[in-house]
């Protein structure tokens, strides 16, 4: 089996959740299952300088991880306008002769690349994992209105309020373009039930979208912090510092706790690359007004255990729905309860009162109240830490991806038999779990 994985960046350049999950799955399939493949990350001039003579570059020392330089991307239409670049990408894909082509995002590649790979690799099976809502939401895939309110899904009137400068024709053409390009996809994957439900509500065929959850690499948990006074009042934020991830909500909550005289510490871990100057100025001003909150800067996977060892709770204050947040899995791997918004993929991943606490999304006052309870309620941290289930590991996710690829590649008769037997095997597995 030859596998081509395409992602909108490379985790060594932009360590976002999608990039980390995509590359992790690729390496697991290669190292544990012997799958021959190539990881291709799309970049622009923001991430890597273009080299003369070719669009392709090495990503690092791994011979099977490369970058393709693609610029001129239209984020509204998910369109790659660089037709010359796509002409060079076509022979590259055809020469690789993949059996499976797995997209982990269409940013920079564009809808045109879906059509391209179908044309140059007609025998390959095409899989797309939806890591956010870009395919149904032109507002940066966040399902947020321009004034920051949660959106339940696209609608002609709602989308026009977010894009008053565009006519209804633009919105219709975008939707038709996305659906037309996805018609050539063999299978669509979603890492969460919530995301799948949003696409179904938007009119997508539920039979074409399967839930296949992400996994995380096995690692040694960071030791729990010693708390001689019994207080569990150290909170950590992990993620890119931007408006969507809710760093401003967390800082606002910390400022309120300080004014209330509540002893605590909020450590913000994450980089600020590619953020508007206006937001960065607002971020710095908010930090100055919250003396118990500190920004510790960018971190790598190697830094995570040490930084996690210094906190009791992981705070996830995202102001959008989220999907299948990797930071929740990281927190649970290290035995830290999570405080998060009460909607979407966050609420699906964190059980309120069992392995974490929910607060009203986007509400810094509500977050402050929950953080105060977390710091002051005796026995709460121990109860929630004991309720944490070990996160799903990447080896299981990789094995399920491999089985999926084999199912797609199987002759029609074998695929039908596989599909017929799947419910019985699943029921048998549940019986074994209950028996155990």
TrEMBL record:
Residues 415-436 are annotated as: Disordered. Signal peptide: none annotated. Pfam families: Glyco_trans_1_4, Glyco_transf_4. InterPro entries: Glyco_trans_4-like_N. The keyword Transferase applies. It comes from the Bacteria. Keywords: Transferase. One of its GO terms (molecular function) is glycosyltransferase activity. Residues 15-217 form the Glycosyltransferase subfamily 4-like N-terminal domain. This is Glycosyltransferase involved in cell wall bisynthesis. It comes from Falsiroseomonas stagni DSM 19981. The lineage of its organism: Bacteria, Pseudomonadati, Pseudomonadota, Alphaproteobacteria, Acetobacterales.
């Amino acid at each position: 089996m030859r596998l081509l994985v395409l992602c909108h960046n490379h985790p060594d350049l932009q360590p976002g959740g999608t990039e980390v999950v995509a590359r992790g799955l690729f390496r697991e399939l290669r190292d544990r299952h012997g799958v021959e493949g190539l990881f291709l990350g799309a970049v622009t001039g923001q991430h890597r300088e273009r080299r003369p003579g070719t669009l392709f570059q090495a990503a690092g020392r791994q011979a099977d991880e490369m970058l393709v330089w693609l610029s001129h991307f239209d984020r509204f239409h998910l369109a790659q306008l660089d037709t010359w670049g796509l002409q060079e990408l076509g022979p590259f894909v055809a020469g690789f002769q993949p059996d499976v082509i797995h997209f982990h995002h269409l940013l920079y590649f564009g809808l045109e690349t879906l059509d391209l790979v179908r044309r140059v690799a007609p025998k390959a099976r095409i899989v797309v994992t939806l890591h956010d809502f870009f395919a149904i939401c032109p507002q940066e895939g966040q399902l947020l209105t321009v004034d920051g309110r949660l959106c339940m899904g696209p609608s002609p009137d709602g989308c026009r309020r977010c894009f008053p400068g565009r006519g209804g024709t633009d919105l219709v053409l975008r939707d038709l373009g996305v659906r037309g390009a996805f018609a050539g996809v063999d299978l669509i994957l979603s890492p969460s039930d919530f995301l799948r439900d949003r696409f179904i509500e938007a009119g997508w065929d539920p039979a074409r979208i399967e839930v296949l959850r992400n996994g995380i690499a096995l690692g040694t948990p960071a030791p729990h912090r010693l708390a001689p006074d019994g207080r569990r009042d150290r909170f950590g934020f992990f993620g890119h510092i931007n408006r969507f991830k809710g760093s401003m909500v967390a800082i606002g909550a910390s400022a309120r706790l300080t004014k209330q005289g509540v002893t605590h510490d909020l450590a913000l871990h994450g980089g600020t690359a590619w953020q508007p100057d206006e937001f960065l100025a607002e971020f710095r001003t908010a930090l100055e007004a919250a003396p118990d909150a500190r920004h510790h800067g960018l971190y790598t996977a190697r830094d995570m255990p040490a930084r996690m060892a210094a906190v009791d709770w992981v705070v996830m204050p995202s102001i959008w729905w989220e999907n299948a947040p990797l930071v929740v899995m990281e927190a649970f791997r290290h035995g830290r309860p999570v405080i998060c918004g009460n909607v979407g993929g966050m609420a699906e991943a964190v059980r309120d009162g069992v392995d974490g606490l929910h607060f009203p999304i986007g509400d810094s006052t509500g977050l402050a109240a929950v953080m105060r309870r977390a710091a002051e309620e005796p026995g709460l941290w121990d109860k929630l830490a004991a309720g944490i289930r070990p996160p799903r590991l990447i080896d299981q996710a990789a094995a399920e991806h491999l089985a999926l690829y084999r199912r797609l590649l199987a002759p029609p008769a074998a695929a039908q038999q596989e599909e017929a037997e799947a419910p019985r095997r699943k029921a048998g597995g549940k019986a074994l779990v209950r028996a155990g």
